[in-house]
Design goal:
Largest sheet: 8 strands, mixed
Strand content: 25-35%
Distance between the termini: 22 Å
Shape: globular
Structural class: alpha/beta
Radius of gyration: 18 Å
């Protein structure tokens, strides 16, 4: 986890990530951890130990660097909640449309939902040993269902997949067909492969 010495500016340090505005123009977020809507709890309602990024907390902290012109995200995330990742992606795209230069550096991995956040950045840099992974939507189903209900669940997954394809297509320029095949295969890419395919 990196911190910053320069003042004045914002300096927010969490167990999972740090966010800092180095000066009035440049900011950096160290985004390490899994992505959740809320802090996970165990059977007894106690917080689960681990590295978790929660939506409300992250967006509240993001407001504190809204005046910056350039934002760098240092990424190491295995992903998590697709909906939360999509919200963060869209908020970052709002910043980009407002003139903020977004850069993501994949320090470790950008997998699943982490790859969606990564693709919000117009500039993505990956180390040769970095890993980027994309896949089709997963859902957990408990209970007994008829064929119509299962098809409805599959339709919902298809909609999530189309949403994610739109993110990857904007970033890479690859066709929907190619991207859907890559997602269906659960594609892992090294930094070099991510560059070759337009993700970085």
């Amino acid at each position: 986890m990196s911190g910053f010495q320069k003042k004045p500016g914002v300096s927010i340090k969490k167990p999972v990530y740090s966010m800092a505005a180095q000066d009035g123009t440049n900011a950096e977020i160290t985004l390490y951890g899994d992505i959740y809507e809320q802090q996970p709890t165990n059977w007894y309602g106690e917080p689960v130990e681990g590295q978790f990024i929660t939506l409300d907390e992250f967006l509240e902290d993001l407001k504190q660097i809204e005046g910056c012109k350039a934002l760098t995200i240092r990424m190491n995330s295995y992903g998590g909640d697709a909906g939360v990742s999509n919200v963060i992606h869209n908020r970052l795209r709002d910043m980009a449309r407002g003139g903020v230069a977004l850069t993501c550096i994949v320090d470790g991995v950008a997998m699943s939902g982490g790859s969606l956040i990564m693709c919000a950045c117009d500039t993505v840099k990956a180390n040769p040993s970095s890993l980027v992974m994309i896949h089709k939507c997963w859902s957990l189903i408990w209970g007994n269902y008829n064929a119509d209900e299962l098809r409805k669940a599959a339709d919902a997954n298809d909609a999530w997949d189309k949403s994610q394809v739109s993110i990857y297509k904007r970033k890479t320029g690859l066709s929907e067909t190619v991207l859907l095949h890559m997602m269906s295969d659960t594609t892992y890419m090294t930094g070099k492969e991510a560059v070759e395919k337009g993700f970085a």
